Amino acid sequence: QAMTEVTGPIIAIALVLCAVFIPTAFISGLSGEFYKQFALTITISTLISAFNSLTLSPALSALLLKGHDDKPDLLTRGMEKIFGRWLFEPFNRLFNRSSDLYEGLVKKLIRFAMVIGVVYLGLLLLTGKVFTSVPGGFIPAQDKQYLIAIAQLPDASSLDRTEAVVKEMSNMALQTPGVANAVGFPGLSVNGFANSPNSAIIFLSLKAFEERQSPAESAFAIAGALNGRFSTIDEAFVAVFPPPPVLGLGSTGGFKVQLEDRDSLGFEALFNALQTVQGLGWQDPALTGLFSSFRIQVPQMDIHVDREQAMLQGIPLSEVFDALQIYLGSLYINDFNLFGRTYQVNAQADAHYRVDPEQILRLEVRNNAGNMVPLGSVLTVTPTTGPDRVMRYNGYPSAELNGNPSPGYSSDQARFAMEKILNENLPEGIDYEWTEVTYQQILAGNTMVYIFPLVILLVFLVLAAQYESLRLPLAIILIVPMTILSALLGVMISGGDNNIFTQIALIVLVALACKNAILMVEFARDRHDHGLSRLQSILEASRLRLRPILMTSIAFTAGVVPLVLASGAGAEMRQAMGDAVFAGMLGVTFFGLLFTPVFYMAVSGGRDEATEEKGK
After folding, report:
1. Per the domain annotation, does 609 fall within a domain?
2. pTM of the predicted structure, to 2 decimals
3. In this structure, are 235 and 380 located in the same domain?
4. CA 439 to CA 436: how far, in whole Å?
């Protein structure tokens, strides 16, 4: 008898879960990788669970459950003796009374179906308002147990000055609670990890999560404290950033935008545009930590070779350039083997022979006659300024601009604020493109806008095939918007954003909302097919299915509490999903119990009149 009643709901719930998650497995891009993991895991586990429920569980139940006339075992008698009088019996009386009260409430709600319809429409409007109000996001910033600090000294600063700043920063960091170690790399730029004597990177290793239980010792709190302490360093611009949320997509967290010189306006125009945008960005409350390593006033030496004079003196140009490369840089010669290893041979001048520009003029090369000729006779050295390195992005000369959302702002809000500044202030000929994680976020777009309707459509088709009706599935699907409303309200209360894990949670909630409704609608449909009226069917279904609906909902809600209270590595992602699922399950249970009976009566009106006659 039990299998006759539950086989249909089990199959319907399993098919709905598969219909919800299978489409998400085909999403492309970075966001698709996240969806794919959840889709495959939940789909496979659902199929295994459904198979177990239809085969193994009934067999075990027949073996383990005792008949009504059999004496209870020792464990059951002991539990009834200990808990029966003060827990089990009062709970059952209370629940039976609650079931009767709920049945009466359902009868009243059905009587005022028009009022419920108006309330539902109002909640739909509220859902749309909340959906547009929750800030968008992509991948939550995470405490990865280390931070990245950068230092940018004035142009042409020596490596010695940079090392002094690195030492000062390291000492400050090690005195900050929660910081375990500091490893500095003076002379290394965070953008592309290029060599730059006036740049430095410091990797700050944090203590284990077990030693940082206080919110004041989270990675983000420590980063804020370090930024405050580093602000006293006058010799350099210093900032602290979290690592990128996805390793390999960027060198730091936050966003990066590339300003491009598309009309060959020159480095000065590009630098001026960068300075304008950066200055306005610092004034925007949604943006923080804006910095760029692009400079155009770096002292340089312009070496001009008089090619005609070199030809007159019989000096091959290759000899001139080789001499400059060897003395001012280095030149690869060959390899040699020693102790089973291969080593390179590079020719390079000692440091004190290439300190002053005048030393370049005293360098000598051999002409075709075998005589040594000073380079000063064929070249001139002129002091000048220019960019320390020229970057190109998609073929255009570019300047990078890094930044972070301010506390309390999402990545989408920071991006929109930055785009507004760029669109309003960039001169003609200078354009921009997003890169790294922000570029992936733009590619992903608002995936829910496309995936959610497809998921709902597939669920509708599956239920329509299951019930052989195009109207009855509406009684199940109409509750889905209430789950979105509840979940997003929970996200707003917790201060979160609509990131990729929140969207996955919404997909999960679609299946769970349908699961609760299926338990009630399937039973009501079965009773109606056996001759009861529609009202009697849904009232009996509401009363008898209240316990399993509450039992499964409470069990699942309790199961996500560890996600809501998560701590340690990856806690931000677990909390993002847990907050949405926890709030959504509360809404699924509350709205489902109130609205599903009304929806059933509304969409099943006039259904299967032959069944009514059959019942008579």
Report:
1. yes
2. 0.78
3. no
4. 5
